[in-house]
Amino acid sequence: MSAVPIPxxxxxxxxxxxxxxxxxxSKGIEEAxxxxxxxxxxxxxxxxxxxxxxxxxxxxxxxxxxxGTGVPMSVAETINLDWTERDKKxxxxxxxxxxNREVTVQSSTTSLEASSYGADAAAVENAEDLSxxxxxxxxxxxxxxxxxxxxxxxxxxxxxxHQVWGFEIIDxxxxxxxKVVLWKGAQKTRAxxxxxxxxxxxx
Length: 203
Fold this sequence. Notes:
10 strands; globular; Lipocalin; 46% strand; mainly beta
């Protein structure tokens, strides 16, 4: 299925539809998987696979179904948007603690708070990282911004991620983007992930 323009009805409050990562234009994927401890063999398999994300966005949560071609994969997950910490066991990543929320950033001068996950989180995730997470999004005329924020701690592998979802204008088109700051100890990287819209969910 080919990508189509994102309609105005698709917003940060309703991401329902089918999506696929644009690997050619996304950045930092390989570096992030390395810090997460994913083996070279599995990284290559993931790189060759096409994973379709089927999102059903409801008030307070997003139901996700990831289905892959090239690797046997069908993973369902509920992303709760109430900023309550939850323990999960995820394929590939193992045991994690995670929290997610919808955030309204009132102005371009407002910043996010550093993740409190990990003993050295504040030292590793700096003000420049937090500014980058809020940069380049489509904002309202008043400078306001609506995003989804996600923080994850891997209790198995020890890495931490701070992620923001939103929309950017890239090459003149509205694109769904997820920006990630990820670190483990002194290792840190950023990822800029672009997702193409394939259309509404099929009945």
